[in-house]
UniProtKB/TrEMBL annotation:
Protein name: Potassium channel protein
TM annotation in the entry: 14-32, 38-56, 68-93
Membrane association type: Multi-pass membrane protein
Source domain of life: Bacteria
Lineage: Bacteria, Pseudomonadati, Thermodesulfobacteriota, Desulfomonilia, Desulfomonilales
Length: 342
């Protein structure tokens, strides 16, 4: 972020210098035309070889006034052109050096990262996922092969592991073995399948979410090892239907999913074996009374989902509570459920 702020004045300076050079060329061209009566092309040519000190000689013999004009052109133009060349060279060199330094810092930081997410692909979906992760303070590494897109990633301040996500070495460089999950949102379904296969082999415990463009790709991705497969077209269609048929329900869900609108969000909390909630009924806990949280559902260890649990529903060890409320109270619930974070 700081690099972008510092580079802005430098860019404006180059623009001003470029305008100055164009102005000198215009003045020189018109000046030779008016003083010596030369064609505009000859005037432009003479101006260029004069201010760049190439020294090919005069296009036509100069009058006394023409020589005086040439001297003024050299004094004013040579400094501007030289300053422009130096500024442009500095801008290019510093930009490249900055990229190299940023990449090295990113790679060093990645070497120490753990319990993070690996995002493969930085297209429209990938960039959205990354910005949501950053908004929630979730550590992640982006894997991207396109050099132009890589620049966007580093400019955004994200950790980058450059290379093809389908290659094992690239995933290892992104610390896939110490990662908590992987999100594969590449443009090709075949590439996503290959990424899922490779990631599952490298880390059998990894939570893998993959994007599917075609309907038949979902089964392939699940067989390859993805825990969940997301179809943007299916989800988009469902949201459109819900927005038409049940607009108020859709508004509620949008607020619940996007906690930036309000300080309210949905969270899933796993109840550890040593949690104070194990074996207690909901009414016996402080979840509603003190934390002011709503338990929307409880997922049992056998996979059964209990929707809208009543006050006498018993919480068992290894249950997953689907809770809604303020972030600070959700964090307290997570702590009391026995979850310890590094």
């Amino acid at each position: 972020m700081e690099a972008r702020v510092e580079s802005l004045p430098q860019t404006q300076k180059l623009i001003r210098l470029g305008v100055s050079v164009c102005l000198i060329l215009l003045i020189g061209t018109v000046g030779y035309h008016l003083i010596e009566g030369w064609p505009f092309l000859d005037g432009l040519y003479m101006t260029v070889i004069t201010i760049t000190t190439i020294g090919f000689g005069e296009v036509h013999p100069l009058s006394q006034e023409g020589r005086l004009f040439t001297l003024l052109l050299i004094v004013s133009g040579l400094g501007i052109v030289g300053h422009t060349i130096v500024a442009a060279s500095r801008w290019l060199i510093e930009g490249e050096v900055e990229k190299v330094i940023t990449r090295r810092r990113s790679m060093k930081a990645i070497e120490k990262i753990k319990n993070h997410y690996v995002v493969c692909g930085y297209g429209r979906m990938g960039s959205f996922v990354c910005h949501q992760f950053r908004m929630r303070g979730i550590p992640f590494v982006v894997v991207e092969n396109n050099p132009e897109v890589q620049d966007k990633i580093t400019q955004a301040g994200f950790f980058l592991s450059p290379g093809n996500a389908t290659e094992e070495d690239v995933l290892l460089a992104a610390k896939i073995k110490t990662a908590k999950g992987l999100v594969s949102v590449l443009d090709s379904d075949a590439s996503n399948v290959y990424v899922v296969l490779t990631a599952r082999e490298l880390n059998p415990q990894l939570e893998i979410i993959a994007r599917a463009g075609e309907e038949d790709a979902e089964k392939k991705l699940l067989r390859a090892g993805a825990n969940r497969v997301i179809s943007p077209y299916h989800i988009g269609g469902m949201r459109m239907v819900m927005s038409i048929l049940k607009p108020h329900v859709m508004s509620f869900l949008e607020v619940a999913m996007d906690y930036s609108q309000l300080n309210v969000e949905l969270e899933e909390v796993k109840v550890a074996a040593d949690s104070v909630y194990c074996g207690k009924k909901l009414v016996e806990t402080d979840i509603r009374k003190d934390l002011n949280l709503i338990i929307i559902a409880i997922k049992k260890s056998d996979g059964q989902m209990v929707f809208n649990p009543g006050p006498h529903t018993r919480i068992e060890c290894h249950d997953v509570l689907i809770a809604m409320g303020e972030k600070r109270y959700l964090e307290l619930l997570d702590q009391k459920a026995g979850n310890i974070h590094d």
